[in-house]
Write a structure and sequence with these properties.
Oligomer: heterodimer
Helix content of chain A: 55-70%
CATH superfamily of chain B: P-loop containing nucleotide triphosphate hydrolases
Strand content of chain B: 25-35%
Order of helices and strands of chain A: HHHEHEHEHEHHHHH
Order of helices and strands of chain B: EEEHEEHEHHHEHEHEE
Shape of chain B: globular
Largest sheet of chain B: 6 strands, mixed
Number of strands of chain B: 10
Radius of gyration of chain B: 17 Å
Helix content of chain B: 25-40%
Number of domains of chain A: 2
Distance between the termini of chain B: 17 Å
Number of helices of chain B: 7
Distance between the termini of chain A: 40 Å
């Protein structure tokens, strides 16, 4: 112990202000009140990375399916079909011309194409065999009506006029298919969103347990902070800092591997074009590449996971410290 | 400042370790709390610190009935009470300087504003050369002085000290007592729990004596 005379008042060492000494540099410290090594960081980063990876994968898959379903819907809804069934005393070619004229008279119809005899025979070949002579059979004739982009002709009026003016004519606007695809796309989005929410819930639960573990491991630190007058905001801030960092590390790792996976699959699908397996995958998922919005979504997920991790730990500590502060809940 | 009315305390279903305690710690007062080992000095200090709830009776702190204090108000009450624990409760991963500065840090003060004051206080309690070391390498006496410095650093309204001179030699014990007396003269109420009679003989102050769970007061 140094041999120096005591101050005249106790306030002397506490309140005396003198010029800055060279202790300024020596005393600076950036040490955390809650030591980083006391938190099971590696395991938590690993779990958060897996969660972030699954969340990004879900988001990416939903995004791809949604885009592909949208393209299907768009393709189908840009084309409708007119079918003319043969009737006695009805000249088919005349009926086709009349139906074509009626269809073209509607705004938004860009082109009407009637399948000729050869095309119709080829269409029926799987069921009726080759060498089919259409004039010998009462085969309905099909006409495809192309719709200009961003327009929607009045199909109800078109159907009414065709049925009234062309005997045996009917219009199929593929509504049933569009409805099925819409339902499928919505179902996929709902399933994906549910999985995403489950992954987020699992992340939150994991972080709650990790935070409780960290608090238990730092019980002495929390108690000392409590006794020296730290409020729950200060204490939770000390933990939140660590967990935000862990969340960022985990989310960045998971997101990185998800992006690498999507880029890899995109590369594989571009190399597999015109192969049976490539065509099958393309039919289901389109080209296996994410659009810019998909990558933006992944970045959003990463930020969300990190923020969620920090906020969850903060709230958990806040509630636990509030319980510690509560006089009524103290045991006697 | 701190007022007890018919306070009793029992742990679980055991007998009452403290019974019918009625006393107050007045503003600007100085008192020794004494009694044999196991008499309940630490339990009484914990009741005063609001870290323990009595089984019966009324505890008032700074004119507030303790059971009406909301959790969010508790930190502000604690900031008015300095406490020296018997087991020091220093954080082993922080240096002596950081431990002593902790109460100021949790109040949101910048390190530049308190660096000099903390260093001065540490020098005065004889830890000027030990401010950069971690508690595990401090001796028992040094830890005690660091714990006292932490309790004093923000000049609390009440200081509760549990055996604050238990691990120091007589000269330092006298010096620490002088520090507590100076703190008292500057306006802080001081409660020192001790069983060291020689320490109490050095300063004529009120004595609260615990005997078989009951309190006798010698003004």
């Amino acid at each position: 112990m140094t041999d120096q005379s005591p101050p005249q008042t106790v306030t002397e060492p506490v309140k005396k202000r003198t010029k800055k000494t060279n202790t300024r540099r020596k005393l600076r410290s950036g040490r955390n009140i809650v030591p980083a090594e006391s938190i099971a960081g590696t395991a938590l980063v690993f779990v958060i990375a897996i969660m972030a990876f699954l969340a990004c994968l879900t988001l990416g898959a939903v995004s791809m399916i949604n885009t592909t379903a949208g393209k299907w819907q768009s393709d189908i809804s840009r084309e409708v079909t007119i079918q003319i069934r043969p009737f006695d005393n009805v000249e088919m070619e005349q009926a086709i011309r009349e139906a074509s004229r009626i269809a073209l008279s509607f705004e938004g119809v860009s082109k009407v194409t009637a399948l000729n005899d050869v095309e119709t025979a080829r269409l029926l070949e799987p069921w009726l065999g080759s060498g089919l002579k259409l004039e010998e059979l009462p085969v309905p004739r099909l006409m495809t009506v192309s719709i200009a982009a961003d327009t929607r002709p009045d199909f109800a009026a078109m159907r009414a006029r065709l049925e009234a003016e062309v005997p045996g004519a009917s219009l199929d606007d593929h509504r049933a298919w569009v409805d099925r695809l819409t339902t499928m796309a919505l179902t996929m989005v709902a399933v994906g969103s549910s999985i995403f929410l489950l992954v987020m819930a699992a992340t939150v639960t994991t972080v709650v347990f990790a935070t409780r573990g960290a608090m238990a491991g730092n019980r002495e630190v929390v108690e000392v902070l409590h006794f020296v007058g730290a409020d729950s905001r200060f204490i939770s801030g000390q933990f939140q800092r660590h967990f935000l960092l862990l969340g960022l590390k985990g989310a960045a790792s998971g997101g990185f591997f998800a992006i690498v996976l999507f880029l890899g699959l995109g590369f594989w699908s571009s190399r597999s074009l015109a192969t049976p397996e490539g065509d099958q995958v393309a039919a289901l998922f389109g080209t296996f590449s994410l659009e810019l919005s998909g990558y933006a979504g992944i970045l959003f997920v990463l930020v969300l996971v990190a923020v969620l991790t920090a906020a969850t730990s903060r709230l958990t500590v806040h509630f636990q410290v509030n319980a510690l502060h509560s006089y009524r809940r103290k045991s006697s | 400042m701190i007022k007890f009315e018919n306070v009793g305390l029992r742990y679980g279903l055991g007998r009452e370790v403290l019974s019918d305690l009625t006393f107050q710690v007045a503003p600007h007062s100085f008192q020794f709390l004494t009694g044999s080992s196991g008499a309940g000095k630490t339990s009484l200090l914990r009741l005063m610190l609001l870290s323990l709830r009595p089984t019966r009776g009324l505890v008032r702190v700074f004119d507030k009935e303790a059971s009406t204090i909301l959790p969010r108000q508790m930190p502000y009450i604690r900031r008015k009470i300095g406490v020296v624990f018997q087991d020091f409760r220093l954080l082993d991963h922080l240096t002596t300087f950081e431990n002593v500065a902790l109460p100021l840090q949790v109040r949101g003060q910048m390190e530049t504003s308190y660096r000099h004051d903390v260093a001065e206080l540490l020098k005065w309690v004889g830890l000027g050369e030990r401010m950069h070391v971690l508690p595990p390498v401090l001796s028992g006496g040094e830890k005690q002085r660091a714990a006292i410095a932490r309790a004093l650093i923000d000049q609390p309204d009440v200081l509760l000290a549990d055996e604050p001179t238990g691990n120091v030699d007589p000269p330092l014990a006298r010096r620490l007592l002088r520090l507590f007396i100076e703190l008292h003269r500057s306006g802080t109420s001081v409660v020192i729990a001790t069983h060291d009679l020689s320490l109490m003989d050095q300063y004529d102050a009120r004595r609260l004596v615990l005997n078989e769970g009951r309190l006798q007061i010698y003004d």
